[in-house]
Amino acid sequence: MSRPDVVSAQEWQDARDALMVKEKALTRELDALAAERRRLPMVRLEQDYRFTAPDGSTVDLPGLFDGYRQLVIYHFMLAAGNDHICGGCATFTDNIPSQVHLNARDTRLILMSPAPRDEIDAVRDRFGWSTPWYSCHGTTLTDDFGIGGGFALSVLLRDGDEVFRTYETTSRGVDRLRQDFSLLDLTPYGRQEQWEDSPEGWPQDPTMSWLRLKDEYR
Length: 218
Prior knowledge:
Layout: H1 9-38, E1 43-45, E2 51-52, E3 58-59, H2 61-64, E4 70-75, H3 87-94, H4 100-104, E5 107-113, H5 117-127, E6 133-135, H6 141-144, E7 152-159, E8 162-169, H7 179-184
C-alpha cells in the first residue's frame, strides 16, 4: 500500500506547523471573501411564483421562508417524469444536518426541484430525508435563475413581503458545505479521485464514480 513517509514526531510536528501557516492564511482569505459576499448587491424578485410545499399546500416566494429572514435553496436535480436520481444531489442531501443552529440565525434551508410533488415525495420517502423539499413544477424559476436542469445553491433575503436574490453558486462552490468531502480532504488519501493532486501510487478513481445512493452501498 502506498502511504506517506514515516518520520519522527518532531519532523512531523515541523511539517504540520509549516502547513498550518498556509491553512491560517487560507482561513483569512475565506473570511475576506465572506466579507465581500456580505457586500454584494441584490436583485428584487417580482415574479408571482407558486410552489407546492411538503404538505401539499401552495405557497408563494415569501411563504418559502416560513417566517425566517434568510433562505438557502439547494436546487436538487429531479426533473418531471425522469426516474434518474442525481447521486451528487442525493449525497449532498444526506449530509444536511439539523437546522436548529441555522434557524437560530433567522435562516432556513430547503430543497427545490422542478418535479411534481408526488415524484419528490417518492424519493424523499425512499431515503427518509426530513429537509423541507418544495416543487417548482410549472414555474419558470429554474430558467429565471439560469439553473436550467443543473444543480445550484441560491440565497434569498426577505424584508416583509419583498424577496431578493443575493447569492448563487454551483459546481465546486457547493463542496465546502458537504461534511463528507470536508472530512475526506483532511485525510492522507483525500477523496481518492483522479482530479486531485496526490502522490504517485495513491488510490484514485474517476471523479465521483465511487458515490452511490445510500441504500445502494454494499
